[in-house]
Amino acid sequence: xxxxxxxxxxxxxxxxxxxxxxxxxxxxxxxxxxxxxxxxxxxxxxxxxxxxxxxxxxxxxxxxxxxxxxxxxxxxxxxxxxxxxxxxxxxxxxxxxxxxxxxxxxxxxxxxxxxxxxxxxxxxxxxxxxxxxxxxxxxxxxxxxxxxxxxxxxxxxxxx
Length: 160
Fold this sequence. Notes:
alpha/beta
C-alpha cells in the first residue's frame, strides 16, 4: 500500500532506498504564523505516493528553535539524503522572508541542481535570482504549490 512517511525535524532518518522529498522553503519563526507545510502534505496525500517526506519543522512547536545548530545540521543531512528537494518560496518579507532558503538554494544549485524543483507564486518578492538559476540550469519551476508537488513526486518516483 502506498504511504507517505513524514520525518519531522530531529527525528531519525528511515531507509534511504525509499524515494524522498525534502520540503524546503521559508519556515515560520513565530507560533502565530501558519506554515505552508501542512497544506503540502495534504496535497501530497491525494497522490498516495510511496515516499518519505523530510519536514523541517517539529511535530510540536513547543520549545523549538529553527536556528539551533541541531536543527540546521538535521536539515543539511535530510537534504543530502533526499532524492528531490522541493523549494516552495511563498516568501513574506515581514514574516517569512526566507533568507536561509536563499542560502540553501544557492548551495544545492551549485552542488546538485538535478535534484531541485522550484515553486513560487508569480508575485512572490525577491525571486528573480532563483528564477534565473532555474532557467540557467534547466531546473523545473512552476507557480503553485500543488504543481510543485506534482513535479517533485514525478521526479522522485521516476528515478527509482
